[in-house]
């Protein structure tokens, strides 16, 4: 609706309406309309006084996708018909934190941040303000935005183990995540049904383990070069890829590849394509085999992924030596200079408080770990397991955690504030029942937009009616990116 300033629940929204409506997701911390418009010239001069190649590239790609010519700022003279200027600069304002930014649209456009991550977010905000498609007459409302996230971890977990997702699909998902300022892509690289990361010292992991998949799903694996490419691709867009090697359970693909990783009396060593969980385990009675395996895998994983946090799984396994294994593995990660994440079950082990836990069963008692200072990544399944339906009974979805599925409004209603040590949230797409790019798109969108806002915008500033209005208005942007989103009725997209 023209004239409506969306984002009206933000603390510092000025009442005066602009001729151009503003629809931003996630909702910025403060947005002040200054009245009037900036009309874009056919040529825009991008002025960069900082080393931020990712932000500069993102800005120029955005402008070029709209048919706007980008001039070299150095070549532009200050004459009356000078093109519109967009300036990217580092500003030394501690209030902006590690990811905050300032965006001012007045006679020109100024994007300022302390970090490249902040500048990237500023560019994404500008991208949402701009039209999704080339347009003859581009006008932006004059305004000022000062923005920063509530949580530093705003993630998506993709299960590429049950059913493989090709490199191109992961790239596309990274582009789309960036539009909503999501900054962590957790890749669940190994599970019973498949091993998806090349490990040169253990080549059969992908030769055998990469060839299986859940029934109906896709097999395949990533070379180390492909993963390095994805790491750089994500990094240029402000996203850290967090690898998960799930041990000691969920390892049938590894056992099928190297039988010696199983206990000697183990008679089930075949590749697995079923849906059960919790049946396979590394032979914890053979530490002289299992620990060097984990160590050597980790050495190669860490050489690919610069992420400080490394996910070691640890879910759904009952074994007398489980706690000892988790504690040992956490130390291994720490000795290599990184920080381990485990699924919540790992909190039974004796680990240093810097180890993170990913909370996934709504009812799990995580209080003791919080008490000890462990930080949490919040993925309670009844809100964030988006292998569950967009609506109750959606075909090819699970409903074990919530019969009604996880509709957009449900996800949006999550309140992280009762978790004092939370670093953020992560939506999780498990792929037992998601076997195509189209199905993945349908499960991810628009729900990831809600996840992004839950993690970025403080709960007290969020209102669902306002969110659906803003998100609904971004449909052309999602269309321009080719997203096969669920036709969500709450957004009027059916
Ligand atoms: C639980 S979440 C699992 C996954 C399944 C998922 C299906 C977690 C740590 N374990 O192995 O894929 O449910 O919804």
TrEMBL record:
<keyword id="KW-0326">Glycosidase</keyword>
<keyword id="KW-0732">Signal</keyword>
<dbReference type="InterPro" id="IPR017853">
    <property type="entry name" value="GH"/>
</dbReference>
<dbReference type="InterPro" id="IPR015883">
    <property type="entry name" value="Glyco_hydro_20_cat"/>
</dbReference>
<dbReference type="Pfam" id="PF00728">
    <property type="entry name" value="Glyco_hydro_20"/>
</dbReference>
<comment type="similarity">
    <text>Belongs to the glycosyl hydrolase 20 family.</text>
</comment>
<protein>
    <recommendedName>
        <fullName>beta-N-acetylhexosaminidase</fullName>
        <ecNumber>3.2.1.52</ecNumber>
    </recommendedName>
</protein>
<keyword id="KW-0378">Hydrolase</keyword>
<dbReference type="Pfam" id="PF02838">
    <property type="entry name" value="Glyco_hydro_20b"/>
</dbReference>
<dbReference type="InterPro" id="IPR025705">
    <property type="entry name" value="Beta_hexosaminidase_sua/sub"/>
</dbReference>
<dbReference type="InterPro" id="IPR015882">
    <property type="entry name" value="HEX_bac_N"/>
</dbReference>
<feature type="domain" description="Glycoside hydrolase family 20 catalytic">
    <location>
        <begin position="151"/>
        <end position="320"/>
    </location>
</feature>
<dbReference type="InterPro" id="IPR029018">
    <property type="entry name" value="Hex-like_dom2"/>
</dbReference>
<feature type="domain" description="Beta-hexosaminidase bacterial type N-terminal">
    <location>
        <begin position="23"/>
        <end position="148"/>
    </location>
</feature>
């Amino acid at each position: 609706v023209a004239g409506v300033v969306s984002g009206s629940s933000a603390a510092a929204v000025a009442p005066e309406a602009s001729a151009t409506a503003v629809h931003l997701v996630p909702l910025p911390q403060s947005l002040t309309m200054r009245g009037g418009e900036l009309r874009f010239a056919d040529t825009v001069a991008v002025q960069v006084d900082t080393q931020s190649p990712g932000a500069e590239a993102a800005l120029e790609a955005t402008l070029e996708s709209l048919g706007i010519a980008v001039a070299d700022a150095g070549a532009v003279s200050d004459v009356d018909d000078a093109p519109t200027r967009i300036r990217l600069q580092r500003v030394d304002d501690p209030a902006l934190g590690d990811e905050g930014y300032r965006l001012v649209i007045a006679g020109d456009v100024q994007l300022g941040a302390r970090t490249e991550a902040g500048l990237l977010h500023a560019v994404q905000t500008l991208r949402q303000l701009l039209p999704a498609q080339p347009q003859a007459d581009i006008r932006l409302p004059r305004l000022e935005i000062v923005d920063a996230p509530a949580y530093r971890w705003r993630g998506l977990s993709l299960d590429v183990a049950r059913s493989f997702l090709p490199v191109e699909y992961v790239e596309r998902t990274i582009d789309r995540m960036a539009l909503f300022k999501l900054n962590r892509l957790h890749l669940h690289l190994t599970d019973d049904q498949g091993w998806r990361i090349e490990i040169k010292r253990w080549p059969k992991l992908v030769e055998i383990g990469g060839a299986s998949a859940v029934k109906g799903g896709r097999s395949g694996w990533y070379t180390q070069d492909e993963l390095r490419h994805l790491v750089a691709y994500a990094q240029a867009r402000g996203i850290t890829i967090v690898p998960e090697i799930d041990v000691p359970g969920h390892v049938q693909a590894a056992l099928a590849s190297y039988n010696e990783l199983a206990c000697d009396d183990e008679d089930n060593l075949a590749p697995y394509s079923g849906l059960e969980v919790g049946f396979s385990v590394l032979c914890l009675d053979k530490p002289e085999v299992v620990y060097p395996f984990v160590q050597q895998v980790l050495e190669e994983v860490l050489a690919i992924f610069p992420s400080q946090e490394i996910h070691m799984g640890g879910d759904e396994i009952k074994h007398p030596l489980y706690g000892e294994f988790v504690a040992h593995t956490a130390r291994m990660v720490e000795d290599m200079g990184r920080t381990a994440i485990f699924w919540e079950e790992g909190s039974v082990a004796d680990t240093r408080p810097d180890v993170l836990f990913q909370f996934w069963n709504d009812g799990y008692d995580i209080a003791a770990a919080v008490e000890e200072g462990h930080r949490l990544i919040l993925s309670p399944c009844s809100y964030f397991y988006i292998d569950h339906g967009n609506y109750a009974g959606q075909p090819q979805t699970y409903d074990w955690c919530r019969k009604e599925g996880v509709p957009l409004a449900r996800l949006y209603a999550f309140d992280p504030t009762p978790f004092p040590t939370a670093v953020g949230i992560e939506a999780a797409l498990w792929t037992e029942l998601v076997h195509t790019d189209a199905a993945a798109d349908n499960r991810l969108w628009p729900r990831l937009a809600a996840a992004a806002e839950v993690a970025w915008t403080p709960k007290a500033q969020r209102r669902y009616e306002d969110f659906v209005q803003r998100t609904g208005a971004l449909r052309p942007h999602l269309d321009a990116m080719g997203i096969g989103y669920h036709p969500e009725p709450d957004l009027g997209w059916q």
